[in-house]
UniProtKB/TrEMBL annotation, chain A:
Keywords: Cytokinin signaling pathway, Two-component regulatory system. Functions as a two-component phosphorelay mediators between cytokinin sensor histidine kinases and response regulators (B-type ARRs). Plays an important role in propagating cytokinin signal transduction. Residues 34-120 form the HPt domain. It comes from Rehmannia glutinosa (Chinese foxglove). It holds the Pfam family Hpt. It is found in: Cytoplasm, Cytosol; Nucleus. InterPro entries: AHP1-5/YPD1, HPT_dom_sf, Sig_transdc_His_kin_Hpt_dom. PANTHER family: PHOSPHORELAY INTERMEDIATE PROTEIN YPD1, PSEUDO HISTIDINE-CONTAINING PHOSPHOTRANSFER PROTEIN 6. The keyword Isomerase does not apply. Histidine-containing phosphotransfer domain (HPt) contains an active histidine that mediates the phosphotransfer. This is Histidine-containing phosphotransfer protein.
UniProtKB/TrEMBL annotation, chain B:
Transmembrane segments: none annotated. This is histidine kinase. Residues 502-515 have a biased composition (Basic and acidic residues). Pfam families: HATPase_c, Response_reg. SMART domains: HATPase_c, REC.
Amino acid sequence: MKRALCPVCSGSIDEQFLQLQQLQDESSPNFVSEVVNIYFHESEKLLRNLREDCLVVVDKEFSDYKKMGIHLNQFMGSSSSIGAQRVRNVCVAFRAASEQNNRAGCLRALELLEYEYCYLKNKLHELFQIEQQRILAAGVRYPQQPNNP
Amino acid sequence: MGCEMETDQTEDMDVVLSSMWPEDINEAGRQFNVERPGADQDMLEEVTINKEPNIVDFKRLMELTNYSDKGNWQLANLIKNWEYKQENAVRLLREELDNLSKQQQEVELKKLEILEEHRFEQDGYGGDKRPISILDENLKYLYQDAPRRRNDVVFEDEKVEIEAEFDSVVYWKQRAVHLEKLLEASIKREQVLIEKLQESIENLERQSSPVEELSQVLKRADNFLHFVLQNAPVVIGHQDKELRYRFIFNHFPSLGEQDIIGKTDVEIFSGAGVKESQDFKREVLERGLPAKREITFETELFGSKTFLIYVEPVFSKAGETIGVNYMGMEVTDQVRKREKMAKLREEMAVQKAKETELNKTIHITEESMRAKQMLATMSHEIRSPLSGVVESGVMKLEATKFRPREVVKHVLQTAAASLQKLLTLEGNVADDVPVEVIGDVLRIRQILTNLVSNAIKFTHEGKVGINLYVVQEPSTIAKQGSQKLDRDTTKELPMSESQDDQNGRDENSTCENHKLSNGAQVEEEKETNRKTEEQVVWIRCDVYDTGIGIPENAIPTLFKKYMQVGADTARKYGGTGLGLAICKQLVELMGGHLTVSSVEHHGSTFTFVLPYKVSSISDSSDDPDELSDSDHQDVLGDGNDDDLHSGVFVFQPRTLGTLFSSQSSTRIQKLTPNSYAFNKCNGLLLEDSLSPSSNITYKETRSDEDANSAAGPMETSYELEISDNLSSAEKHEKSVPNTDLVGRFHPYVHPSNSLRAKHNVDENLETCVTYQGQAQAQARTDGISSECSSSNSPEIPKGDLKPKILLVDDNKINVMVTKSMMKQLGHNIDVVHNGAEAVRAVQSNNYHLVLMDVCMPVMDGLEATRLIRSYEETGSWDDAIKAGVDIQLPSPDSQSNSQLEKTRKRIPIIAMTANALSESADECYANGMDSFVSKPITFQNMKQCLQQYLP
């Protein structure tokens, strides 16, 4: 099935991703990959920002944690939108650490976040490759009988 | 001197003793290390040694020492020792003898001296000299020795003692006396020496014999052995060639000497193990190699005991085995422990095996769970496309012409065929239900089948049935009044508009979305050619049963399970929950709704209402080929037209097979109030009912009033039947006068018509057509099939004035996803990225709904909402301006008051909250929000939200 939730991703991605896939149709055939690419782009920016935040946070205090919180909210929001469950969870922990002004916790969380993000990215790439192959394979007969249940 | 000798001797003895022990006595590996007697003599005296266990056949021992190498060797050693000791003694004695003889010589020498002196005297007198040979050694010795001594000692003495004149008488006398004295002393010394000699001889005699010494040592060793072995559970024995005991040491003897010595094991004991032990010994004897074995005895004598037996052969000088030494140690406890251990180990192994098995099982279970999960996911996948596909347009709803009565009959027939219970299945299709409608027959049949089989499943007696009748358009529509008006207008309108529409379409035209399946397309093309009109009819279908019913509290969850989102619940509730969920979804996707009412223990009724297109008169074209083209499965050929209109089916339980009632056919003929348009059709129903295997009975269950009402239009129907060749338009005209029909149909006019009608009213025909085109394009791209969207009346009224929705979110991804979802749901939305922008947007546009993220930069959603609410209450944007929002106040003439008024209606603002965030619902409400949807946004909650807040 075209919309299969790829099993390789099952750990890091939840049902929300299905929602994403459902949004993909003839009018926006690359919707999922577009969204995910933007997500990657945004996430990398956010990760950079977060790393900076973590470095700056030593001397100055409150405002930087607040900034970190904003970045994390962003990250969390977009991650949950694409169903990146694990990344989101790490974000939640990260934010908890930042709310307590816990720099060490933040650094740990950042590390974990970067790891999870990379993992997710790899998995999604895999998924897209598989999907692509499947679409290519399915492409031949697809137009003929699309309606039959 | 004697004292010296004594010490010498002891030392010698010591040497002897240490070297007397046998052979392998290198110092390192001594078998016996016995303390020297005297060093710690007392040690063993404190120990009482029970010597009794030692039973020895001495004769045999002699034999052994004589014949076996070892014995021989030991004996030789002993002898050697003894010899050495003797030699030593002899040496000592000899030394003593030498001493003595020396002394004697001295004495003799002295004597000779004296004699010589005498002779000298005599010589001087008589000259009587004894001739001494020169060759005589002794003499020589004497001569050489004596004079010197005499010179040294005696002469001096003489000189001292004799004062008298030499050679005088006095002198000689004195000299004689002196010599006499010397002689006396010499004799005395001789006597002492003799005494001493005797003494030493006596001493020699008194000395203990080495045999005694040896036996003492042996005894000590023996004592030590006993001491060491006294408590050991050990049996030591020697058996001869015939395996007769010659020696046995057993600390716990239970038998006397006479019972053992000279007997074999078998002769002594009886019971298990005895024979084995004997055989084992014999084996060792034969093989000539020592061996160990564990043997468990079960004898009367000492019960059940296990012995570890060591048996070694004993060889004669000739190399022949002449017996065995055997040593046994009782290891019963150890064996028991060992066995216990073995048992434990075995149990552990079994446990381990079980564990492995369990692990395997767990693994398998996990696998199957995974498989299940996969299945769940798969079913999710299967389901999702069903909805997704329909929504997205990848898989479109089929618009097929079909006959509701046949579908009902078919479903019931199928159910009856596999029925296992005594249930009556009945179907009742109201007369006002068109004979033929357009819809997705496959899915409708699927829903119906599902509901019926569900009903049968939960019904144990009574009946299950289907009612089909036409209803008003569902009252859920907000602008019902106006819509009705629209429709009323539509009804009166000529259909030229739609014709134009359809004629004008090409492949790319969005209008064609109406007809998605090929069949329908073909059909509709023909329709178009015949200038038909389309209408919509809402048909309600009740599937009722007299089953167990559904508890009231379970009803809300009945459909919801699936809604909560798939994998989990699907797994939990299995297939049952799924069917209903799918049904509901399907119904909703087709623009209808599915409900349930139930009384526990009395039964349930599932009701779904769906809109169907009706292409009225033209559809009743008499061309059977055309019909079979479009709907071949239902059209089997021309038959009795009347059967088309029979709306009552009863399937009695098989045992109650009934006869076909001829009456029904006539009755059916009468039941044609509005079926005039479809009179020329197949006789499938009749065919089926006439077939001998069928149990179908057409019952006349219609009430009289139905019959009566049916009677009126009959004429018309016949009339129409005759007018087959009339154009569809003419037919339509013909049908118009039939108020009954029109009255029924016009509330269900195709909404697109109504839309068009409205635009007509607006006198903006071209724009309107374009707009509709756009809307349809939208519908297509959003995956809503035209069939669905156009017939889904709740959406259509919105269509004319598309609800404006504002999304306020700073997150790109969220915006993308939400936007795309809304697109699929048929809405275009405006997007702004923070609260301030939202306020400005609301100020300059009329939105019907605002979706507001809570956490945003610049201005958060809560504040923005507050400001908007403030404006709505006060009519001024002062608060917003105070808050720093750059607002361009409209010039007084730019907008009419009315619009301002309109704007000031309270806009529903819906918060989008992430559950993980601390944004609480209370906070949202407190700031004037109407509701909230939790992120991530899903189709389901977005749809619910829109349904709730969009009019």
